[in-house]
Specification:
mRNA processing, 43% strand, RSE1/DDB1/CFT1, globular, 1407 residues, 86 strands, RNA binding, 5-stranded mixed β-sheet, 5-stranded antiparallel β-sheet
Length: 1407
């Protein structure tokens, strides 16, 4: 029996829902941040089971940006507030508004989320924990609510949520016909009057008080299509769009206008809902309602070919194309100036009478409601511009809207009405918007360049929409793209190929980073190939052998003379080149000049070179260099020493001792240097900026003979014009407003914001201010890794030691430059655990202070003058487990593992060296972790910026190589994995990899608009035998029709380039769709040699009257030696009955699935000869082969397991699954000698089957037995079998154990990996514990989410022997005490569990 685990490696990125609401404390109090229209709401987006909240950050014209100015804003970007992975897919979402629009300064909204089948959760943002908190849960599932389903089992769509615009109630449509009304509580009434829920300003989030159900069937409302709450009524009014009696395409001439609107006035107190008005005779294809904002009121009903406006008093409409029709006897509809189809459109309001529509082709349209003061007169539609294909839109404030997309990158756009001259001039420079900008500009814009579509400007053609001046009623708008969120979904297919800069000699884990995934993602004009790499492989500039290196540093040198010249002022601090590189070896130090080339100057400089260096850095605004060695320190001006300190002389005056102490750890924060000696003493070098000298002091706080030795310490400089930590002290509001910028001319402030962070062996963490060393913050038991840290206000915590043998070996705190950035706190524990915390501000009110520390009030007066950082809190962030490594604690000198960088290739973050090095980048205020496996252990790291290496870095490997590198430029690192997108301007369908030539043949389809006459003649040509006897109106022949044209494009990655080169294009015939392309190895029976060929399977799509046909095409590639013109040449083609949907090679034969038949063919070199066949039930979706076994999945009839016997030349069925299943993808799972069959289906499940002919229940071997079943929560489109690594480090061996890498339609990538029995049993017990122990966001149950969904079909539940790694990863985020307690309960140890989790992470690091 084999066991497996399900693990998501790359989270979902395709955004399905978006909304805007004031969730977090808004920036209403600060005048500096406000966009012209007051505070900006948060953006809430959902992708699959991920919920994210963003804040929109704007830069005004003073700070300068690189894009056109608009409304005084020069740039804007999205910044992450919080991110949650839920145990359930979010079906729909609405924001429950916390008050009227005008009081938006202090309004607080809640979010209503709906999950299948009928779960509703209301969440709000909790300032004290900086996360979402569930305020109420409503579930209408289970036996008590069975009657709501009215006997139905499957429902085509999940629940739909809509909220009243004034926040009085929300409605959720469940099971198609039941409407749940959620009544929101009035502030201070009902359940909500509890004091502890009050925020700092006494603002309450809106809560839900009660709920009840309205059965729409009793109101004679059936077939509900959409519903919405409208504006402008005293009580909430709900308008329902429903179909009185259904119709279908064959009945449309007789029965077309079947939809109607019903408006219900909702009284939540009386639970009554009388109908107040209705409108009938809407077209059958009406599908969406939009509530028109006050003062106009009413609703827009959107149909495929028309838009209708209805309110209680007036109605009007507009026809969009020639297919719209009126009911008999009604007036002629006004037509729009151009023809457009509005099915599958999304819309949002830009102002109270202008709506922005996004069509299914990605065009943006503006709909203006023209009114005369009494009511809406008519509707006007104009084209605005083009953009991505959207899945949702929302307006943010008065000047931004967000286009969410499942098929392309989602973008944030700024708009303004009535284009001013300055805007128009800026916006005409479309080239600047789409082209590459210089690096400094790109930095300010954030590394994710919104317009990935560099060449064509198709993502959002930016032009100002100016209408003709004769029609004064229409308003004009101009748009600028400000930011984008990358999306790699929907992934239809992927292939696994070598990177361009792969290292052929790599082995073990390093070899894995030779590979990359090339995915078919996107659709239509957003179609692209996404290149994904899990680990970073830097671009090598140069490499030197250098043995025994202990550390490297680069330092700047500012010449005092150059201050007078203006040239140096032009160079920003970021662009200044480094001057010296200092390399510390075993017993000497090398110094190199980092000018044009690295030249050694060790002999000519006054650096200490006769021993190893502990640290080096800049002091006094980069005018001096400080170098610390074991026994002393030197201050240098360039290459000349200006001062030398020997520690033993200085310290012996202060503390007489026999053994002269040496420096063990150094932290530099201009103008201070913190030293930790080998005997544990702490000293501080204080710099004097006036004469650039330092003096040694010993802080009295740290006495050597204290009972609690110090385990790690560091300095933190709160740099920048807006010191952040200072605002969290108790009296900050007296001196400055919390968000007001502190006057940056005051130079004294700049040096005083230095703090010393100290952690003790007992696990306590304290923060002191420097140089006074007053205790301003202390956390007891920091080592346990609690989710939140807050100031405990106790000066002497006499706790017993709770470290469980762990201690903090390194601590670091860093804040990257930026107007809104906040500090991060990092700590490395002795067992290799990395703790990451992010600081946030929370001002506890007096009532809620008690729970944080019982004796806080009595202690405050004792501790100091109230300048504790009392409002500082930290929230823990999750980082991946694959970077754990045990520390060797025997050496006294701890080599630091954390190196922060402010600019490497335009990114900021920190690098973690060690045996599993990793980059942790801070993008949008969130940490993105990317490992770097390719060089093995890295012992030292530093940044380098000079002429030849622009914003690069240097790393030293444990094998003794010093490498100067840069980050690969075309990749975007603001994603779960580094990603490069290659735009194709068409839909990619399948991709395969030709290893010998490093080519990627890809099936691409491009939509082409043709006249109907052309389409029909080409159909007639192919139907040469049949007569076209359809009488068609000659006017209709001029109408256009969109058809997809298919081709196979052979793409080759270029050397370190951005775009890929098209080497060959193979066009398909008219109406021929290419369905599959694969590289196969066939045995040529004439020459007795194996040939590698490309096979393409196609189908002719000509409507239901024509029997299906397809072709199979074989192509050969020219070998490298031949200088032939054609890279690809067709060597065989044959037409078959039925569509050729899958091909594979089976022991040198070609297996072809054409329609419902599978044929096995041998290849003679010029002809395919049939050898054997098997009749499939309906249509083969996928084929997989291991040795002589064949697995295929049918579109409705589940999977079949076949065997090929050479003797009798027959394909015979071994077993099949007798259930009905709509297969998506299939593959074999190999664990040692065990073979299992894996299938994913249309209900987003994974099932694992096995073949056991000897057992009873397999019906003498005919039936495949279920080994595991699991709900993946996403449609899995492809499995790929890859060999797993066993063991760790360079000794890692390949094992006979294969994991399945899979891709999904929402942009996530994951794996199903086999496990041994002991590991599985241990982790399964842990998983059951975590269901109860770990807190789950939105109150969702992980076990319920992972249960097999059969959607009403008969299904026998199988065993659940598939582990859920999404749940197991919560274990690392628990506190140390909880981890140890759970481990004891399941009779295991913490280190054993963490080792199992980390082994699987490393074993499945395939990229």
């Amino acid at each position: 029996m084999s066991y497996a685990a399900f693990k998501l490696l790359h989270g979902p990125t395709g955004i399905e829902n978006c909304a805007a609401g004031f969730l977090t404390p808004t920036s209403a109090s600060s005048g500096t941040d406000g966009s012209p229209g007051g505070p900006l709401p948060n953006l809430i987006v959902t992708a699959g089971n991920v919920l994210e909240i963003y804040a929109v950050r704007t830069l005004d014209e003073k700070t300068g940006g690189d894009k056109g100015l608009m409304d005084g804003i020069s740039a804007a970007r999205l910044e992450l507030v919080c991110h949650h992975r839920l145990h359930g897919n979010i079906e729909s979402m609405a924001v429950l508004s916390g008050g009227s629009e005008n009081s938006s300064g202090n309004r607080r909204d809640s979010v209503v989320l709906a999950f299948r089948d009928a779960k509703i959760t209301v969440v709000e943002f909790d300032e004290s924990t900086h996360r979402l908190r569930t305020s109420s849960m409503h579930c209408f599932e289970g036996p008590d609510w069975q009657y709501l389903k009215r006997g139905r089992e499957s429902f085509p769509r999940g629940p739909i949520v809509k909220a009243d615009p004034q926040g009085r109630c929300a409605g959720v449509l469940i099971y198609g016909l039941q409407l749940v009304m959620l009544k929101s509580a009035q502030a201070g009434h009902g359940l909500v009057g509890d004091e502890e829920n009050q925020n700092a300003a006494g603002i309450l989030s809106v809560r839900v008080e009660s709920s009840y159900i309205i059965s729409l069937r009793e109101l004679e409302i059936n077939h509900v299509k959409d519903f919405i709450f409208v504006h402008g009524y005293i009580e909430p009014v709900l308008v329902v769009l429903h179909e009185k009696e259904p119709t279908w395409a064959g009945r449309l001439p007789w029965k077309n206008h079947t939809c109607m609107l019903s408006a219900l006035s909702i009284s939540t107190t009386l639970k009554q809902h009388p109908m107040i008005w209705s409108a009938s005779n809407l077209p059958h294809d009406a599908y969406k309602l939009l509530a028109v904002p006050a003062p106009l009121g009413g609703v827009l009903a959107v149909c495929a070919n028309a838009i209708y406006y209805h309110s209680q008093s007036t109605s009007c409409s507009i026809a969009l194309n020639s297919f719209s029709s009126q009911p008999d006897g009604s007036l002629e509809m006004p037509k729009s100036n151009f023809s457009v189809e509005l099915d599958a459109a999304n819309a949002t309001w830009l102002s109270n009478n202008v709506a922005l529509f996004s069509t299914k082709t990605g065009d943006l349209l503006l709909l203006t409601l023209v009114n005369d003061g009494r009511g809406v007169q008519r509707l006007d539609l104009t084209k605005a511009s083009t953009s991505v294909l959207t899945s949702g839109m929302t307006t943010l404030g008065n000047s931004f809207f967000f286009l969410a997309s499942r098929l392309g990158d989602s973008i944030l756009v700024q708009y303004c009405s009535g284009a001013s001259n300055s805007t128009m001039q800026k916006n005409d420079e479309v080239g600047d918007m789409n082209g590459e900008s210089p690096l400094a500009k790109r930095l300010r814009r954030m590394p994710s360049d919104p317009l990935l579509d560099v060449t064509s400007g198709e993502e959002l053609s930016l032009f100002t929409t100016t209408q003709s001046s004769s029609d004064s009623s229409q308003s004009s708008f101009s748009f600028v793209v400000r930011d984008s969120l990358i999306n790699i979904g929907p992934i239809k297919d992927f292939s696994y190929g070598l990177r361009i800069n792969a290292d052929p000699n790599a082995a073990g884990l390093a070899k894995q980073s030779n590979y990359e995934l090339v995915c078919c993602s996107g659709h239509g004009k957003n179609g692209a190939l996404s290149v994904l790499q899990q680990s970073i492989r830097p671009e090598l500039i140069t490499e030197v052998e250098l043995a025994g290196c202990k550390g490297i540093w680069t330092v700047y040198h500012k010449n005092s003379r150059s201050h007078a010249t203006d040239a140096s002022k032009a160079i920003s601090e970021d662009e200044e080149y480094h001057s010296y590189l200092i390399i510390s070896l075993e017993n000497r130090t090398m110094v190199l000049e980092t000018a044009d080339d690295l030249g050694e100057v060790t002999e000519t400089v006054d650096y200490f070179v006769h021993g190893s260096t502990i640290a080096a850095g800049n002091l006094f605004g980069r005018r001096r260099v400080v170098q610390i060695f074991a026994r002393g320190a030197r201050i240098l001006d360039g290459s000349y020493m200006t001062q030398e300190l020997i520690f033993s002389q200085q310290i012996s005056d202060l503390v007489p001792s026999s053994e002269p102490p040496a420096a063990a750890f150094v932290s530099i924060a201009d103008p201070y240097v913190l030293l930790r000696m080998t005997d544990g003493a702490i000293h501080l070098l204080v710099g004097d900026p006036s004469n650039c000298t330092v003096s040694l002091t010993t802080p009295p706080v740290f006495s050597v003979n204290s009972t609690d030795p110090i385990s790690a310490c560091t300095l933190y400089h709160d740099k920048g014009p807006h010191p952040w930590l200072r605002t969290t002290s108790t009296d900050a509001w007296l001196s400055t407003g919390i968000t007001e910028p502190i006057d940056s001319n005051d130079l004294l402030t700049n040096s005083s914001d230095v703090y010393c962070i100290v952690s003790y062996e007992s696990g306590k963490l304290e923060i002191f201010d420097v140089p006074g060393f007053k205790l301003v913050y202390s956390v007891g038991n920091f080592i346990s890794g609690k989710t939140y840290l807050s100031d405990t206000c106790k000066s002497n915590i006499g706790k017993e030691e709770t470290g469980h043998g762990l201690k903090v070996v390194e601590v670091a705190m860093h804040r990257w430059p930026g107007r809104y950035s906040r500090p991060y706190l990092f700590a490395v524990l002795s067992d290799g655990t990395l703790l990451c915390y992010r600081a946030y501000f929370y001002e506890a009110t007096d009532s809620s202070k008690g729970d944080m520390s019982a004796d806080a009030s009595s202690d405050v007066s004792m501790v100091g003058h109230g300048n504790r950082l009392r409002n500082l809190r930290f929230v823990r962030l999750q980082v991946d487990s694959g970077i754990r490594e045990e520390e060797n604690s025997d050496s006294i000198v701890h080599r630091p593992r954390i190196s922060a960088f402010n600019n490497v290739g335009g990114y900021q973050g920190f690098f973690l060296n060690g045996s599993r090095p990793a980059w942790i980048m801070a993008c949008r205020e969130r940490l993105r972790m990317h490992p770097q496996f390719c060089d093995g252990t890295i012992v030292a790291f530093t940044v380098l910026h000079n002429v030849n290496c622009n914003h690069g870095f240097i790393c030293v490997t444990s094998q003794g190589f010093l490498k100067i590198c840069q980050l690969p430029a075309p990749f975007n690192y603001d994603n779960y994995w580094p990603t490069q997108k290659i735009p194709l301007h068409g839909t990619p369908h399948q991709v395969t990899y030709h290893a010998e030539r490093n080519l990627f043949p890809t099936i691409i389809s491009v939509p082409v608009v043709r006249q109907l006459s052309q389409v029909l003649t080409s159909l007639a040509d192919q139907e040469s035998g049949q007569q076209m006897d359809v009488a068609i109106n000659p006017d209709d022949m001029q109408k256009t029709y969109t058809i997809e044209e298919f081709e196979v494009r052979v793409l080759k990655p270029e050397k370190a380039g951005s775009q890929w080169e098209t080497k060959a294009t193979i066009p398909m015939q008219n109406f021929e769709h290419a369905l599959t392309v694969r590289m196969v190895t066939l045995h040529n029976t004439t020459t007795k040699e194996n040939e590698t060929l490309m096979v393409v399977g196609t189908a002719y799509v000509q409507g239901e009257d024509v029997p299906g046909r397809g072709r199979v095409l074989l192509f050969s590639f020219a070998s490298n030696s031949e200088p032939s013109q054609n890279l690809v040449s067709e060597i065989f083609s044959r037409e078959l009955k039925g569509a050729v949907s899958a091909v594979a090679s089976l022991q040198g034969h070609l297996l072809i699935a054409s329609g419902p038949k599978i044929t096995l063919n041998k290849w003679t070199g010029s002809e395919l000869m049939g050898v054997a066949f098997y009749d499939a039930p309906l249509h083969v979706v996928s084929l997989n082969i291991v040795k002589n076994f064949v697995l295929f999945g049918d579109i409705h009839k589940s999977i079949f397991f076949l065997n090929w016997k050479e003797q009798g030349a027959q394909l015979s069925m071994l077993a099949k699954d007798f259930g009905s299943l709509d297969c998506y993808a299939t593959e074999f799972l190999i664990d040692g000698s065990t073979l299992s069959l894996v299938v994913s289906d249309a209900q987003k499940n994974i099932q694992i089957f096995y073949y056991a002919p000897k057992t009873m229940e397999s019906w003498k071997g005919q039936k495949l037995l279920s080994r595991a079943e699991f709900h993946a929560g996403a449609h899995i489109t492809k499995f790929l079998r890859l060999q797993m690594l066993g063991g760790l480090g360079p000794t890692a061996e390949k094992t006979n154990r294969f994991a399945l890498l899979f891709s999904t339609l929402d942009g996530s990538v994951g794996c199903v990996a086999p496990l041994d029995e002991f590991t599985f049993k241990r982790l399964q017990l842990l998983q059951k514990k975590l269901v109860d122990m770990a807190p789950h966001v939105c109150g969702l149950n992980p076990r319920a989410f992972r249960q097999f969904r059969s959607d009403g079909r008969a299904h026998r539940p199988g065993p659940d022997s598939l582990l859920d790694f999404e749940l197991l990863s919560h274990y690392e985020m628990l506190s140390l005490e909880e981890q140890i307690e759970i481990a004891e309960q399941i009779k295991s140890t913490r280190s054993q569990i963490l080792c199992n989790l980390s082994d699987l992470t490393v074993g499945t690091s395939f990229l």
